[in-house]
Amino acid sequence: MLSSLASITTLMLSTLLMMAGFGLMGFMLPIRSLNEGWSTFIISVIATGYTFGFTVSCVVTPIFVRRVGHVRVFGALITLLTVSILLCALVVEWWAWVIFRGLSGFAIAGAYLLIESWLNERVTNDNRGALFSVYMVTCLVGSIGGQYIVPLGDVNGPELFMICALIFSLALFPVALSTAQSPTPIAEARFDLKRLYRRSPIAFFGSLLSGALSGTWGSLGGVYSQTIGMSTTQGATLLAAFLAGGALSQVPIGRISDRMDRRLVMIACGLFGVGACAMMMAFGADDPTPLYIAGFFVGTVLYPVYSLNVAHANDLAEPDEYVTLSSGIMILYGMGTVTGPLLAGTFMQWLGPSALIAFLGSAFALYAGYAAWRITRRPDTVTPAEKTDFQATIVQMQGADNASPITETER
């Protein structure tokens, strides 16, 4: 086990630094946008640039990796991340930030794919759970740590932007100087949405909703915290509560879903999400502790729904369909991350910050309702022994290579 951990030390160090920069960037930019006087709708448009770039990268990055290799592409993507945040400091115009955020979304998604591809080749059936737990904790600690850098500086000045760029640049060194062998090329995304719908309508519809859920909160959660009157430290704590809830709940939820009809777990997650959002709407920023607790509960079901969709689709797929179906889920998830912030941002513009939580609650309700309806349309014919193992995720979106439960050599 110790040798397995040693083999991914440099990779996890790069991941920690990259996620610290990501957490800083993701919380700092919405606050600066508010300080510039940009409307909630404009901020949601900027967020859409990020999610669009993120989705495109999941399809395009594997092509670059096949041409020049992991290390070179990783270096290019980290450089692009650094450039994107510095450009945000140089040109403070919302239309320019749409482009710059698109660049950062493209870069961070590609970096995720490379890191997870690298990690997949270092794991075996015996150490998979332990090593991916290390990866999840690394992502969580990095993101939360980066968010707490924001209260230490002034978002209206250039210093935090420069610190973020420095952190991204440092993330390149551990991987670039590593002597570990590069993994095999990432599988290119091949998606067939019609086949995905035939295999698992709930995975099809649920992927759109899970993208809307995580994309909307990830893009506008910082805006919500500031518009209800929280300080930057309190806002960072609220975002951390969401992440912590998602990290702690995924494995238990996944293991439960491995033992019963996954759609029942989807219904439970959706209904729990509705209740948690109702709790969150009942609390204000005057006493943030109940808000943190409610946010933690929302996070416990907000992030696992993507993995539930992947697992349900793979339960019903033929072995040669895993990559195709997972790629389809990835594309639908990306569509959700693009459209969710736009809709929620519009509602926030009209109705105020609480509309964001109401939007999340509505998406949870749709998720639970559709899963319940699908149970009436198709009985569960997959036994627990025939199910694919649930795989927990912590990042916004997985690429097809990691979403599939099989390895590259098995494809």
UniProtKB/TrEMBL annotation:
Question: Which ranges carry the Major facilitator superfamily (MFS) profile domain?
Answer: 199-411
Highest rank taxon of the organism: Bacteria
Signal sequence annotation = none
**Which Gene3D superfamilies does the UniProt record give?**
MFS general substrate transporter like domains
What keywords tag this UniProt record? Answer: Membrane, Transmembrane, Transmembrane helix
Q: Where are the transmembrane segments?
A: 7-29, 41-64, 71-92, 98-119, 131-148, 160-180, 201-224, 236-253, 265-285, 291-310, 322-344, 350-370
Matching entries from InterPro entries are given as: MFS, MFS_dom, MFS_sugar_transport-like, MFS_trans_sf, MFS_YcaD-like
| Main localization, broad class | membrane
Its subcellular locations are: Membrane
Lipoprotein as UniProt keyword:
no
Q: Which Pfam families match?
A: MFS_1, Sugar_tr
What protein name does the entry list?
MFS family permease
Record the organism: Peteryoungia aggregata LMG 23059
**Phylogenetic placement of the source organism:** Bacteria, Pseudomonadati, Pseudomonadota, Alphaproteobacteria, Hyphomicrobiales
